[in-house]
């Protein structure tokens, strides 16, 4: 049975049982505690937490998941993908344990002719939580499972919670016995490879306290409403139903292995277990990588981007270890597009962008791979020379951080050289870095959400800011350092929740509004506005005057000047985005944006810098759209309607049932957006692009000023030119030619100067030769030339001095320093060479003193070093080398 068919049957089974079908959320759903969506329940969290009422009582989904914790298992176990699809059914206060077990059982064991998976019921095992007698009995009653095939497991395996106080409950897992040839008898508690977990049912019934029942602590209460959350691994079911040995050989993963076989000429499953793991890693990671890029992740050095980078680089390295040196990622990407495309059509649509991202990442890595290998070799040699045996943690970290070497690559290279790696040191540095990354992801620091949950129970905030700037409202709650307080007075900084507000909360790239909250005798200055659970507007504000108490009537007031700028900034962003796509093509899709009054920036998928022509064309198209005074229209519709309109949905954003489409100039610019916009494009005012730069590979950033700020920026530039023209005493338009002429004259003057200096140096040759000292019958001229004299001049001078030593056996050694660098030249006369003096052989005698090396022929040797302070010592060493 094809994998796509397994998903389809799951959905049909639950839809027929009255569940609402909910599409998969993006892998990068905005959740501060998660790097990637890792389970089907993530998008339903607000309903489970009671932060929002569920729009349906039962639902089903097939959710894209990425589990980074499973990276090291990939290819080694039979059952762990980094990307997999979790099918689930959810009940919000509807059916509970009996319903969940029944639904799962009928699908798993129902005949294939009737739309089920047709697993042999005699090979199914179940586990339940230690004291969950209810589930234990239901498995016997509903499924007819004999007691020997129901096993009890402790909290570590079979209790679920979110890691914090809140909902929790026992789990019950469903296993399939693959048969005695795959391991020991005794059920899942004995062998998790022979007995394969395919489905986990979570019975949400408890309130977990500070301590988790996972570790044996009793729950502190019971949930008023019991919920069901389940997850079935589509890939695991596929591998069983397709009669293959593991999740990497299923119809959606195996084609990448075939591609790798074709490229490398090696065969998967031909008796080389190390190669086989590599094949599986390649296939798994190719799929995860492409799915992540599809959802808008680009390779980078932090958080999500780093995980993606690690996956892609591990592919490149594994392929190299299979003997392939050509670029491979674009070809693997095409295979993934073909296998996953039928279910995720955006992969096909976005393929040019996806391909550009992987191509670029592979090129970058192949570039640093060489330098990183060099760094590693130098470090390894030095450690061994010094008698050490361990690569320090900071080296491993540097290789990782600067050269993009995943730690397992470093470990492998080290062991080839007989070295270990200070993994603890590396991990400590990584932990520090991770902590920084996490802090960056966690934007709103709303740690304990209960206080907001209580406020949300009073109703969501009504946003009136699209229609008016000032709104009458009532203070619903005041929060101070996470705790609800009855009032706040002058000087206090608190969070204010009101029933209605005209103040825009930061979202969709637009910063929050500046403004005031005023009431009878009180005035608060609004510092920031954030949304909690997408429904509650939380205003951070400083009490300027009076006392604010819960329940009082107030007016929220948006600063009108600010809002004019904010609207220009946000509409300007849409205009630039549309211009970008017009000039570069539709694959230049925005991946992030930020706008505030007067300024905007936009990150978009693009490999390589924009040419100056494209840049000015984008600016031109944007300003034309402004001049054409296009109408701006807002349409409310559902997701399907928005797609029909061709509206651009952005990565990582979550959209409600009803979505808002903002269009500028009809179909020219249509985006899903909740921001505040101008009414006609002319109100945006001038747009000036001020910069374009790289933000990680495959991603560029364009920055622009809009409105009055654009005008001021241009005025400043004009003043600069006028200033320069004044200094140079030429008309404006002659400034470039004049500067060019000046630079040219400077260059000529520098050349002259150099010639003069060289001449002077050479004229001193005779004098130097006369001053040669006699060391054991050899005439030695060894000295430090003036700083900054380059290697070539040293050489010319050395030859000149040598000529003047005539027929004497002689050695000339000249040094000079340039900053931290030392250059040197050693020359011997022919009589000297007859007497056994070789320039190249003399070098090692003195070069360590200047931290350098070099070499050459008997008549002439040249080199450099890094310690100018050692020149005198080097001369002494050379003198010593001539003395027997
Ligand atoms: P395991 O112990 O095998 O890693 P788990 O306990 O982590 O599994 P759950 O968190 O209960 O799994 O996830 C629900 C279901 O999702 C599992 O029953 C399994 O079918 C599937 N699943 C979990 N992790 C993976 C993975 N890395 N690759 C493929 N499927 C997975
Ligand atoms: Mg797991």
Write the layout of secondary structure elements.
Blueprint: H1 3-16, E1 20-21, H2 45-48, E2 58-66, E3 83-92, H3 97-109, E4 124-129, H4 133-143, E5 150-153, H5 155-158, E6 159-161, E7 166-177, E8 195-208, E9 221-233, H6 234-241, H7 254-264, H8 273-294, H9 303-321, H10 329-340, H11 346-349, H12 351-385, E10 390-391, H13 393-401, H14 407-416, E11 420-421, H15 423-441, H16 450-457, E12 462-463, E13 470-480, E14 483-485, E15 487-489, E16 493-498, E17 500-501, E18 515-519, E19 522-532, E20 536-545, E21 547-549, E22 553-558, H17 560-584, E23 590-596, E24 599-605, H18 612-627, E25 632-638, H19 639-644, E26 658-664, E27 669-672, E28 687-694, E29 699-706, H20 708-728, H21 735-763, H22 765-770, E30 773-775, E31 778-784, H23 791-805, E32 810-818, E33 821-828, H24 830-834, H25 839-846, E34 853-856, E35 860-865, H26 871-882
Parallel strand pairs: 1-2, 4-5, 10-11, 12-17, 31-32
Antiparallel strand pairs: 2-3, 3-9, 4-7, 6-7, 7-8, 8-9, 13-14, 13-16, 13-22, 15-21, 16-20, 18-19, 18-22, 19-20, 23-24, 24-29, 25-26, 26-27, 28-29, 30-31, 32-33, 33-35, 34-35
Helix pairs in contact: 3-4, 7-8, 7-10, 8-9, 8-10, 9-12, 10-12, 13-15, 17-18, 25-26
Adenosine-5'-triphosphate binds at residues 67, 70, 79-81, 84, 86, 197-200, 231-233, 235-236, 247.
């Amino acid at each position: 049975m094809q994998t796509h068919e397994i998903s389809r049957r799951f959905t049909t089974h639950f839809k027929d049982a009255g569940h609402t079908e909910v599409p998969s959320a993006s892998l990068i759903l905005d959740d501060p505690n998660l790097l990637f969506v890792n389970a089907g329940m993530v998008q339903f969290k607000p309903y489970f937490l009671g932060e929002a009422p569920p729009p349906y009582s039962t639902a089903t989904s097939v959710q894209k998941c990425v589990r980074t914790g499973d990276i090291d298992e990939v290819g080694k176990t039979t059952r762990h993908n980094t990307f997999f699809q979790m099918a689930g059914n959810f009940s919000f206060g509807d059916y509970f344990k009996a319903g969940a077990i029944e639904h799962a059982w009928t699908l798993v064991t129902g005949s294939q002719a009737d739309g089920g998976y047709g697993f042999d019921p005699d090979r199914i095992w179940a586990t339940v939580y230690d004291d969950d007698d209810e589930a234990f009995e239901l498995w016997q009653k509903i499924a007819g499972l004999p007691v020997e095939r129901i096993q009890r497991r402790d909290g570590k395996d079979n209790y679920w919670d979110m890691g914090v106080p809140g909902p929790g409950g026992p789990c019950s897992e469903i296993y399939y016995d693959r048969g005695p040839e795959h391991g020991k008898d005794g059920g899942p508690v004995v062998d998790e490879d022979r007995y394969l977990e395919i489905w986990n049912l979570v019975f949400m019934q408890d309130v977990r306290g500070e301590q988790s029942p996972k570790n044996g602590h009793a729950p502190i209460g019971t949930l008023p409403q019991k919920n069901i959350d389940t997850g079935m691994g589509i890939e695991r079911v596929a591998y069983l139903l397709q009669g293959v040995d593991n999740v990497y050989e299923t119809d959606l993963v195996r084609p990448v292995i075939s591609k790798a076989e074709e490229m490398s000429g090696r065969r998967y499953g031909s008796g080389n277990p190390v190669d086989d793991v590599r094949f599986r890693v390649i296939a798994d990671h190719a799929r995860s990588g492409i799915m992540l890029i599809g959802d808008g992740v680009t390779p980078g050095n932090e958080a999500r981007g780093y995980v993606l980078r690690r996956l892609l680089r591990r592919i490149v390295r594994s392929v190299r270890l299979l003997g392939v040196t050509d670029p491979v990622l674009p070809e693997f990407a095409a295979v993934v597009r073909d296998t996953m495309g039928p279910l995720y059509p955006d992969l096909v649509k976005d393929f040019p962008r996806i391909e550009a991202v992987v191509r670029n990442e592979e090129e970058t890595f192949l570039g640093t791979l060489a330098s990183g290998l060099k760094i590693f070799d130098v470090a390894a040699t030095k450690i061994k020379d010094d008698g050490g045996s361990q690569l320090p943690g900071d080296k491993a970290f540097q290789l990782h951080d600067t050269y993009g070497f995943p730690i397992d690559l470093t470990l492998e290279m080290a062991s080839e050289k007989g070295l270990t790696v200070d993994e603890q040191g590396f991990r400590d540095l990584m932990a520090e870095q991770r902590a920084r990354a996490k802090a960056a992801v966690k934007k709103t620091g709303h740690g304990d959400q209960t206080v907001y949950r209580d406020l949300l129970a009073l109703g969501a905030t009504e946003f009136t800011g699209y229609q008016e700037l000032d709104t009458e409202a009532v203070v619903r709650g005041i929060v101070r350092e996470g705790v609800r307080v009855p009032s706040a007075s002058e000087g206090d900084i608190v969070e204010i929740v009101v029933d209605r507000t005209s103040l825009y909360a930061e979202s969709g790239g637009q910063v929050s509004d500046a403004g005031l909250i005023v009431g009878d005798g009180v005035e608060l200055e609004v510092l920031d506005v954030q949304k909690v659970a997408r429904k509650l507007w939380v205003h951070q504000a400083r009490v300027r005057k009076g006392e604010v108490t819960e329940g009082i009537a107030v007016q929220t007031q948006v600063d009108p000047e600010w809002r004019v700028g904010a609207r220009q900034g946000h509409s300007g962003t849409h205009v630039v985005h549309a211009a970008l796509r017009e000039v570069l093509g539709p694959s230049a899709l925005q991946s992030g944006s930020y706008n505030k009054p007067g300024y905007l920036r936009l990150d978009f998928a693009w490999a390589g810098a924009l040419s100056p022509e494209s840049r000015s064309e984008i600016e031109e198209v944007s300003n034309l759209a402004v001049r054409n005074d296009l109408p701006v229209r807002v349409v409310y519709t559902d997701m399907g309607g928005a797609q029909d309109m061709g509206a651009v949905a952005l990565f990582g954003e979550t959209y409600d049932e009803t979505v808002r489409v903002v269009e500028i100039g009809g179909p020219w610019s249509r985006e899903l957006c909740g921001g505040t916009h101008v009414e006609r494009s002319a109100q945006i005012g001038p747009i000036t692009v001020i910069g374009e730069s790289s933000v990680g590979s495959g991603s560029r950033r364009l920055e622009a000023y809009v409105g009055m700020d654009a005008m001021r920026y241009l005025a400043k530039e004009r003043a600069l030119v006028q200033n320069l023209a004044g200094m140079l005493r030429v008309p404006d338009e002659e400034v470039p030619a004049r500067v060019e002429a000046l630079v040219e004259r400077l260059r000529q003057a520098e050349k002259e100067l150099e010639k003069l200096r060289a001449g002077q140096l050479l004229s001193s040759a005779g004098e130097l030769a006369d001053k040669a000292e006699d060391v054991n019958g050899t005439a030695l001229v060894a000295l430090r030339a003036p700083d900054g004299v380059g290697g070539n001049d040293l050489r010319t001078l050395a030859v000149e001095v040598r000529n003047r030593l005539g027929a004497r056996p002689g050695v000339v050694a000249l040094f000079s320093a340039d900053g931290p660098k030392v250059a040197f030249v050693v020359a011997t006369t022919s009589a000297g060479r007859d007497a056994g003096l070789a320039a190249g052989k003399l070098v090692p005698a003195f070069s360590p003193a200047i931290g350098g090396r070099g070499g050459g022929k008997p008549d002439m040797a040249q080199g450099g070093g890094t310690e100018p302070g050692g020149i005198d010592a080097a001369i002494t060493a050379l003198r010593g080398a001539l003395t027997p």
